[in-house]
Write a structure and sequence with these properties.
The chain contains twelve helices and twelve strands. It is an alpha/beta fold and about 400 residues long. The strands form three sheets. A seven-stranded mixed beta sheet has the order 2-8-7-6-5-3-4, sandwiched between helices. The longest helix is centred in the C-terminal third of the chain and has 39 residues. The structure holds pyridoxal-5'-phosphate.
Length: about 400
């Protein structure tokens, strides 16, 4: 990838790729004609405008499917991973009614899994929400022990949006398949960053989001396994019967085209990009650790996304730190739960105290970040942490900053 390195650094430096990613210029280019002359409705069967749109949608469907090892007909386009999670959980629960209604998930899942589950619980579904280990990973034995005779579905994300931790989905998939239990996986953060193969991984339902992988916002998909065994799912949006009846509504053709293009780019560049972004992350981490005391990583350092670094700065309020860093676009946790401003439910599920969770910052590096940006960010963070600790009543005795060099 060249383009980052030729670009002059601009501030604020974007280090919040778990919240969303910039649109890749190549994706924008692919989308533009569909905002212009190719405006047709993909469901119009009687003229060239419709045929052109439908052709573009089917091409994109193949591009998305290819990145997952799925078949095109197993991809249902939605408005994003939130909708996909709702369709997967509510749709499966509705389809399985009478055959058992127990669902197993993790306390570190995204709100877009936990909240639909809460909704289902009000309708009589039973849920087991497992706490992961302190490194953020779930033990296969924990899942096995949580299964009940009427467990219908297990929902475990591939990679976490706050701590980047990657779950052992392959093993969970095998366990579920063995017991005839549906396995849903929220892969919004993993798509385009980690290799995914829904068949090898025994995944029945997988939620995807385009804007987390350099595609447009408001676009995503649900992978629904169609064979051996075919997943039964009840639509949650009825209307014209689009998307094989799973999701009615006129298709967002430009965004679908962009999603497809983003998937094709990721398929070609994922490996190199993961290496490059991973080494930028390691560079950031080693600079923070060598220049500051009282820094620790939240979550597994072995099983995590290449661009993720979630760190805790002892005796520093992350909110104050971010205020002191206007040149950096960072986050204290999930952008999606900004409506509920409490400390991160993910970090608390790892066993962190509320105070520890409030001293944690999430760095999310991505495709267009450069070494220059990472060095700039590290220097700014080090400086700000030292300054805050000097002035903080919390800092006395907890962890003294090193003298400035
Ligand atoms: C961003 C995200 C979502 C929500 O995706 P949208 O496409 O924004 O609705 C769901 N799950 C995870 C893990 C995410 O990171």
């Amino acid at each position: 990838m060249e383009f980052g390195s030729f670009r002059k650094m601009q501030t604020p430096v974007y280090l919040d790729h778990h919240a969303t990613t910039p649109l890749d210029p190549r994706v924008l280019e692919a989308m533009l004609p569909y905002f212009g002359p190719r405006f047709g409705n993909a469901a119009s069967r009687t003229h060239r405008f419709g045929w052109e749109a439908e052709k573009a949608v089917e091409h994109a469907r193949r591009q998305v499917a290819a990145l997952l090892g799925a078949e095109a007909r197993e991809i249902v386009f939605t408005s994003g991973a939130t909708e996909s999670n709702n369709l997967a959980l509510k749709g499966a629960a509705e389809a399985l009614q009478g055959r058992g209604a127990h669902i197993v998930t993790l306390a570190t899942e995204h709100r877009a899994v936990l909240d639909p589950l809460r909704h289902l619980e009000r309708q009589g579904v039973r849920a087991t929400v497992l706490p992961p280990r302190s490194d953020g990973r779930v033990d296969l034995d924990q899942i096995r022990d949580a299964l009940q005779p009427d467990t219908a579905l297990v929902s475990v994300m591939l990679a976490n949006n706050e701590i980047g931790v990657v779950q052992p989905v392959h093993e969970i998939g095998a366990l579920c398949r063995e017991r005839g239990i549906l396995f849903h996986c929220d892969a919004a953060q993993a798509l385009g960053r980690l290799p995914i193969h829904v068949r090898d991984q025994n995944i029945d339902l997988m939620s995807l989001s385009a804007h987390k992988m350099y595609g447009p916002k408001g676009m995503g998909a649900l992978y629904i396994r169609r064979q051996a065994p075919r997943v039964a799912l009840t639509a949650q949006m009825d209307g014209g019967g689009h998307e094989s009846g799973y999701r009615s509504g006129t298709l967002n053709v430009p965004a679908i085209v962009g999603f497809g293009a983003a998937c094709e780019i990721s398929a070609a560049e994922m490996q190199d990009e993961a290496e490059r972004v991973g080494s930028l992350r390691d560079r950031l981490q080693s600079r923070l650790f060598s220049e500051l005391d009282g820094v620790s990583v939240n979550g597994s350092q072995e099983y995590r996304l290449p661009g993720n670094l979630n760190v805790r700065f002892a005796s520093v309020e992350a909110a104050s730190l971010l205020l002191a860093l206007p040149d950096l676009a960072l986050s204290t946790g999930s952008a999606c739960s900004s409506a509920t401003a409490g400390p991160s439910h993910v970090l608390q599920a790892l066993g962190l105290t509320a105070a520890e969770a409030r001293s944690s910052v999430r760095f999310g590096l991505g495709r267009f970040n450069t070494e220059e940006e990472v060095d700039f960010a590290a220097a700014r963070v080090v400086q700000a942490v030292r300054q805050l600790r000097e002035h903080s009543p919390l800092a006395s005795g907890v962890s003294t900053p090193r003298p400035r060099r």
